[in-house]
Design a protein that fits this description.
The complex is a heterotrimer.
Chain A (H helix, E strand, L loop, with lengths): L2 H15 L9 E7 L10 H15 L2 E2 L2 E9 L5 H13 L5 E4 L3 H14 L3 E3 L14 E3 L4 H14 L5 E6 L2 H15 L5 E7 L7 H10 L3 E5 L4 H12 L8 E5 L5 H7 L7 E4 L8 H11 L10 H19 L6 H9 L2 E4 L2 E6 L4 E14 L2 E13 L6
Parallel strand pairs in A: 1-3, 1-4, 4-5, 5-6, 7-8, 7-9, 9-10, 10-11
Antiparallel strand pairs in A: 2-3, 11-14, 12-13, 13-14, 14-15
Helix pairs in contact in A: 2-10, 2-11, 3-4, 5-6, 8-9, 11-12
Chain B lengths: L1 H19 L4 H23 L8 H16 L5 H23 L4 H21 L1 H4 L24 H23 L1 H11 L1 H6 L4 H27 L9 H14 L5 H20 L4 H15 L3 H16 L1
Chain C lengths: L1 H31 L7 H17 L5 H22 L9 H23 L15 E4 L2 E4 H23 L1 H11 L1 H6 L4 H26 L6 H4 L1 H11 L5 H20 L6 H13 L10
Classes of the chains: A alpha/beta, B mainly alpha, C mainly alpha.
Chain lengths: ~400, ~325, ~290
């Protein structure tokens, strides 16, 4: 094959497949996340803004290598698409690290590529417990649902809230959080007043709200996808006047992240939730992050838990590259990550060396209006919760 | 002569592609599998005249079938492929019996309804399918015990190519057989076909079953080369996408599905790389343009051009 | 017991009213023009966004935003029908599917471009908030408002179809197009008007739906199956058919979720498939 021929083939492949020519010294991150479609609101752009906020604060070069983010759109939980994108990022774009993932199936598919090619991967969301076991070169900078929901049940027990009714979306993450919540509830001899699993295609929540009204519970625990489902449910909850009837709404924190609470406005006020991150967290590190993030986000929106996952993934990457003076040896990198502990905008965090999941504080928050904006105000802390929800 | 050229083309094309684009083999094998999937739909839509908005059910059954086998200790890919095709065909029999009873719009809706039911059932049965988290823990053994699945995707590409070729040969001989001709007679005029004594519903149901088995094959190979299966493989979205691919290429022409899949996927891939956020706008405009300029697909447009030329002669 | 049943049925009727309002226009396109229109939801989405825009950017009240949503979707309908849809009236159903899928993609992409990928919400005026007690149960004021609103629209529509000259032209064109042309009806014009009316109704339905169904760029795809089901089950081309079908879908779906939550959405889909098999041409449709 002659050189010209090869060159033409390369040009052709750039034209057809959009391959990006590589500059040797850049540190390339392949970001796989939804940039289009219904999940893109708190998806790829949110992650990218979180990463850019980190670069704005800490500079876009580490150990002499400039950070380049290559965005790949994986709009739905389709593993075949994610595998293809990850493979191309590794073999053609020669990325140094894979990152992103809103959905668990895309994380698993890309994780296989990471394992096979020994390219480190950083999960910024995908919160299903136990998926890292078969991915030795992957670490998760986000959270698990057991981690964020168990403390909420603990808090309910502590405050003598009885007769909790659970409403979760009928899919694997919903069932994860229902299980975690109920297990913790039962530890104090408490039990649920009722449990409903809501199909993912639910539009109208009226029937479920009526079921809740029939049981007259003391509180409702809800976990629904942070999209129009979360929103429609909270609206229906208000519309039926359940809050006025004295029923408390306890939500998994993802349901009231800034993009949701912004559109819900007054309807969401008073919701108690548990999560690992609130943009209202009162530290200097977080203040700097929120300010930097707002320069990138649409309409100056505050960062969500997804953005902070992306920010911390960058912290991990920078740390690993710095300690290896510009290199990123896969085994050494995983060693560094396992032992990492740092001050994140969410609070103090460290890694559990065995699970490669983050150990972090989980906060109980209440949604309030503060200086005109809706924020989740943290009022109680469960310190150092691990990925199984244990302290 | 022409036949020899076609055979040479079928053999030369993959070799050339592997030499030219060694880094885009995963994309290529997925194009081949979507092409096979679109071809299976062509047998149903183009030859039997039964439109479906739920064909991904059978693709998904193939994918989950191969996935479940590999996750439960049966990782041999070829026997799993045959077995899942059988499963897809068996499942398609009652569905086909129901679907062919409807009118043309009714068929679209029944297939859509069944597709929604099946994917909700798969979501519910998360103990078996993994639900929204996807089916994990697949362990697919090397192809023929020799070729393991490399990072570049060479094994997957050749595997997909061979399965596609066999599927193509099968469909070609089906549509040329007396059975295939009777399907086309039904498509053209079901009342007349029935009057001539063709058992219309039985023939259409059989076409449905054959088409489902092929769709299952595409799904099985996709699962074996991806090594994860998720609910999207059963989804209505995939059903709509494959129908669009077939329509872009042109129905009832064998190659339409392959050409449509290649164009749709390459354009999609290219646009979403160039503009990950707004590619939907561009693909929407392209589809609208295609529907206006080539309502019978690309192959239909080429035929029209050709016949116009002949008239001019 | 009975009070709960009444409550569930009323909730279901409110939901059905919305589905009917959005779908009735689709019945016209599929019956009158024989057009496989998968992009109908885009007109509802356009109305929804127009309503949100009118309230948030223009500061209009909710009641003023509803007619604006109607007009906007209607104008959009006329433009698209004149420019694009009519070119494909004589094409195959499959080409129409390709075209409307393209339109679907385009509308979703444009919605992201103009309003961002997030979901929108509106704030109801105080007089539409809260609950009212009736028949020993509670119904939200907004649901009651929706039912009454759609009831008025449906009666108006029934009047137009049954007793006006325009209605007679529509009925004639649906029943026998050749004859309609033969007796001098300008079927072309009838189609444009009918399409415009259908799009406008979808628009106002989308605007009302922001509160109950939500609104984001994936709206036309997410609810496509519902709109199609209602028209096909009801019988394309009819006005009463979709009304029946919407009531069946709305009430059975709501009641099914209340009385048998374990079955979730299975109840409704089983019912739909059964209805389609028993009435292959729709509840009030005829074989063509």
């Amino acid at each position: 094959m002659s050189a010209t021929f090869r060159y033409r083939a390369l040009t052709l492949s750039v034209l057809i497949f959009g391959a990006i020519p590589a500059i040797a010294d850049d540190l390339k991150i392949g970001l796989i996340a939804p940039f289009s479609g219904p999940s893109s609101d708190a998806g790829g752009p949110e992650m990218e803004s979180g990463m850019r906020a980190y670069l704005k604060i800490h500079g876009d070069t580490v150990a002499g290598r400039k950070i380049v983010i290559i965005r790949k759109d994986a709009p739905s939980p389709a593993p075949d698409v994610a595998r293809r994108l990850a493979q191309e990022l590794v073999t053609r774009d020669k990325v140094d690290v894979l990152a992103g993932h809103i959905f668990t199936p895309t994380a698993i598919a890309a994780g296989q590529v990471s394992t096979q090619a020994k390219v480190p991967m950083l999960i910024m969301n995908a919160a299903t417990s136990g998926i890292l076991a078969k991915m030795p070169y992957t670490a998760r900078a986000s959270f698990t649902l057991a981690q964020t929901t168990a403390p909420l049940a603990r808090w309910a027990n502590k405050n003598g809230i009885k007769r909790v009714f659970t409403v979760v979306a009928d899919y694997a993450p919903g069932i994860d959080s229902e299980t975690a919540f109920l297990q913790e509830l039962e530890k104090s001899g408490n039990s649920a007043a009722g449990s409903i699993r809501v199909p993912l295609d639910t539009i109208d929540f009226a029937s479920y709200i009526r079921r809740i009204q029939d049981t007259q519970p003391g509180a409702v625990f809800a976990f629904l996808p942070a999209s129009d489902q979360a929103k429609n449910f909270i609206k229906a909850f208000r519309e039926a006047g359940l809050d006025k009837a004295g029923v408390r709404l306890l939500a998994e924190g993802g349901m009231v992240h800034p993009a949701i609470s912004m559109t819900l406005d007054d309807d969401a006020i008073g919701t108690v939730s548990s999560h690992h991150y609130s943009d209202d967290h009162q530290t200097a590190v977080n203040a700097a992050f929120v300010a930097a993030f707002k320069t990138f986000s649409p309409g100056g929106r505050a960062p969500s838990y997804i953005a902070v996952g992306a920010y911390d993934a960058m912290e991990m990457l920078f740390q690993a590259v710095k300690m290896q003076e510009g290199k990123l040896d896969p085994d050494r990198t995983m060693q560094i990550w396992r032992e990492m502990a740092w001050e994140s905008p969410r609070g103090p965090v460290r890694f559990d060396p065995a699970s490669r999941d983050i150990v972090q504080n989980v906060y109980i928050r209440k949604l309030e209006r503060k200086n005109g904006a809706l924020v989740n105000v943290e009022f109680e802390t469960f310190a150092n919760v691990d990925d199984a929800g244990r302290q | 002569m022409k036949a020899a050229l076609i055979v040479a083309g079928w053999i030369a094309a993959p070799v050339l592609y592997m030499a030219l684009f060694p880094d885009s083999l995963v994309l290529a094998s997925q194009i081949l599998l979507m092409g096979l999937f679109a071809l299976s739909l062509d047998l149903l839509v183009g030859y039997a005249g039964v439109a479906s908005l739920g064909h991904a059910v059978f693709f998904g059954i193939g994918a989950y079938g191969a996935g479940l086998l590999a996750a439960n200790g049966w990782g041999e890919p070829l026997s799993a492929l045959v077995l899942t095709m059988l499963v897809a065909a068996i499942f398609a029999l009652p569905v086909g019996l129901l679907v062919v009873r409807g009118g043309s719009l009714g068929r679209l809706m029944i297939t859509l309804g069944i597709a929604t039911l099946v994917s909700e059932a798969a979501n519910r049965a998360s103990g078996i399918t993994g639900g929204a988290d996807g089916l994990q823990g697949m362990d697919v053994w090397p192809l023929l015990g020799l070729f393991s699945y490399d990072l570049q995707g060479r094994t997957g590409f050749v595997y997909a190519w061979i399965v596609l070729t066999l599927g193509f040969l099968a469909v070609r001989s089906i549509v040329a057989s007396p059975f295939g001709l009777s399907l086309q007679a039904i498509r053209e005029n079901p009342v007349r076909a029935a009057a001539l004594g063709t058992p219309v519903r039985a023939r259409l149901t059989f076409a449905f079953v054959l088409s489902a088995a092929l769709a299952g094959a595409a799904g099985a190979v996709m699962a074996q080369t991806t090594q994860v299966v998720a609910l999207n493989s059963l989804g209505v979205h995939l059903s709509a996408d494959v129908l669009v691919m077939l329509l872009i290429g042109g129905v009832g022409r064998l190659y339409g599905g392959l050409i449509g899949a290649a164009i749709f996927m390459v354009v999609h891939h290219w646009l979403s790389d160039l503009d990950p956020v707004y590619w939907q706008i561009w693909i929407g405009l392209i589809l609208i343009g295609a529907a206006l300029a080539a309502p019978d697909g690309i192959l239909g447009a080429i035929e029209k051009l050709r016949s116009r030329k002949q008239v001019a002669w | 017991m009975l009070a709960q049943f009444i409550g569930v049925v009323l909730d279901g009727i409110a939901y059905a009213s919305l589905l009917f309002l959005i779908s009735v226009g689709l019945s016209v396109t599929m019956g009158l023009m024989q057009f496989a229109n998968l992009a109908h939801g885009a007109f509802a989405m356009a109305g929804g966004y127009m309503c949100v825009y009118a309230m948030q950017a223009l500061g209009l009240s909710y009641l003023a935003a509803l007619p604006i949503a109607f007009l906007f979707s209607m104008v959009l309908g006329v433009i698209l029908e004149r420019l694009l849809y009519r070119r494909l009236y004589s094409a195959s159903h499959l080409a129409q599917v390709l075209f409307t899928v393209g339109l679907l993609y385009l509308s979703m992409g444009l919605a992201v471009l103009l309003f961002g990928p997030g979901a929108q919400a509106i704030h109801l005026p105080p007089f539409l908030q809260g609950q009212i007690a009736m028949f020993g149960t509670q119904l939200s004021v907004f649901r009651a408002f929706t039912i009454i609103f759609v009831l008025i629209v449906a009666l108006g529509l029934a009047f137009v179809v049954r007793w006006t000259r325009f209605g007679a032209r529509i009925r004639c064109s649906v029943d026998n197009r050749a004859a309609a042309i033969g007796i001098g009806i300008d079927v072309d014009k009838v189609m444009t008007y009918a399409f415009a009316l259908g799009s406008g109704l979808a628009g106002v339905g989308g605007a009302l739906g922001v509160q109950l169904m939500g609104l984001d760029p994936s709206f036309p795809l997410k609810y496509l199956a519902y709109f199609l089901l209602i028209v096909v089950v009801g019988g394309a081309g009819s006005f009463i058919g979709p009304l029946f079908a919407a009531l069946v879908v709305g009430v059975v779906d709501t009641a099914g979720r209340y009385y048998a939550p374990v079955l979730g959405s299975f109840t409704m889909y089983f019912l739909m498939i059964a209805l389609l098999l028993i009435f292959p041409h729709g509840l009030v449709g005829r074989a063509r």
